[in-house]
Design brief:
Chain lengths: 155, 155
DNA sequence: ATAAACCTTGGAGTTAAATCTAGGGTCAAG
DNA sequence: CTTGACCCTAGATTTAACTCCAAGGTTTAT
């Protein structure tokens, strides 16, 4: 059981943000005290952590609402519906991971091309690194890649 | 050589967005016609694609500006500086990939737990899936994971 | 029993990133 | 030589996601 300030501190956000999430239907406290103070349960906190993680990973609050709506009325959904919605989000996540991997390899190329010494960076070019990586990009975007996790990053 | 509308169409953004990027120092056309029309080169287009990819992957325009600033005055930077900046961005990207992988596995758990049939989704819970995945989360965050690329997602 | 530190609501302000509007030039096709 | 599809600038508006403020009620520690 947390008061709003306690939960906020626990999750390193502002109380204002919690009230904002409530107003927008993402997270309502399970109850109120007689005086009207919001009371959040451990379950509410878990939900909040889910929201924050989804946010950190680039989902908008609207998308998160959509994800959480599964939770709210799950007894009214068929299992197949839930699976469908989750799997479509899962696809988005997988696609985003692929994009990130492509981007990471862009940066990696630049880092690799750079000697790292004290001399001028005349020959270090983000765009050069980009160009040389362009052929590499497509296979990353399309299809699941079991071998592109994280490429060795040394030197 | 592209006029603003051509480049916009090529990259599926609005001309307004290109002018906006120019105003904010992310991408200026290499030249103008006598009439004042913006003229973008292939190099400008590559820079734009870099911007769009970075954006898709969750970087803010300010962060992207910082990344691109390397390009602008690279001759005034030491190679070590460039490498430092790039490597720190690289760390951010790797961290984000880790977060996304954790999130993906959350969703995967839910999908797996869900029978996918026509019956009520009473027992499919995003939060349940979250709980059971909580122990799994930390090893993903810390350290490079060569084997967490993308887990089989079928069924 | 009172001050400090909480909490409440309603509404205004902020920031990032566009997106739109108004009022005009430019250019190629018929 | 005009019409429609472009382009220009400057500035206003929008949207998401907070963040802050005012005016007041509640709790807690001294």
């Amino acid at each position: 059981m947390y008061k709003i300030g306690e939960l906020a501190q626990l999750c390193e956000i502002k109380t204002d943000t919690l009230r904002f999430y409530e107003k927008h239907g993402l997270l309502a406290p399970s109850s109120r005290t007689d005086a009207g103070y919001r009371i959040y349960t451990e379950n509410d906190a878990a939900r909040l952590r889910f929201i924050l993680r989804a946010k950190a990973v680039g989902f908008t609050l609207n998308e998160i609402t959509e994800l959480l709506s599964i939770e709210l009325d799950k007894s009214n959904w068929a299992c197949a519906d839930v699976k469908g919605l989750v799997d479509s989000k899962l696809e988005q996540v997988v696609a985003r991971i692929a994009e990130l991997n492509a981007f990471r390899s862009s940066l990696q190329n630049l880092s690799n091309a750079c000697c790292g010494g004290p001399e001028s960076a005349e020959h270090c070019s983000i765009l050069d690194a980009l160009e040389t990586e362009q052929g590499l990009e497509k296979p990353l975007i399309k299809g699941v890649n079991h071998h592109n996790a994280i490429v060795k990053a040394e030197r």
